[in-house]
Design a protein that fits this description.
This protein has 142 residues and is mainly α. The chain is 53% helix and 4% strand. The relative contact order is 0.09. Pfam families: DUF4817.
Length: 142
């Protein structure tokens, strides 16, 4: 389990060793890359920037190399639906601005409940008195 591959090319053990070596090298990514090459000559050698990324992953409380390991998505769908009920013409961005819930999450919740994005499109109304000028314009264009 400790040596299971999560991301192509590196195991969780290798990520942990990269992190330890990064610390030993005084958080210098180039020095860590050199030290890693010396210590593990038979392994694939990561680019020096990988050491900083691995360190940042651990500092953010997530395992490096895991896909979909972003922020936990715990959303109270009722808040989104309540916003939609209060104003059915509201936009996804407006709901995001009022609630702080990411736009993509708001859109997903609305989609899950069968709502579609609503866009107000204002158009001019054609009146009966507009008929003659429209006909005259069309004749001139022909």
């Amino acid at each position: 389990m400790a040596n299971r591959r999560i991301f192509p090319g590196y195991t969780q053990r290798e990520y942990a060793e990269m992190h330890l070596i990064y610390g030993e090298a005084g958080q210098s990514s180039r020095a860590a890359a050199t030290l890693y090459r010396e210590r593990f000559p038979d392994r694939r050698h990561p680019h020096h920037e990988m050491f900083t990324r691995v360190h940042n992953s651990y500092m953010e409380g997530r395992l490096p190399g895991q896909r979909g390991g972003g922020r936990p998505q715990v959303v109270d769908e009722d808040i989104v639906l309540q916003e939609r009920e209060q104003d059915p013409t509201t936009s996804v961005r407006a709901i995001q601005g009022r609630t702080g819930i990411p736009k993509s999450t708001v859109h997903s919740v609305l989609k899950r409940y069968g709502y579609h994005p609503f866009h107000v499109r204002r158009v001019q109304t054609l009146l009966t008195r507009d008929y003659l000028p429209r006909v005259q314009f069309c004749r001139r264009m022909l």
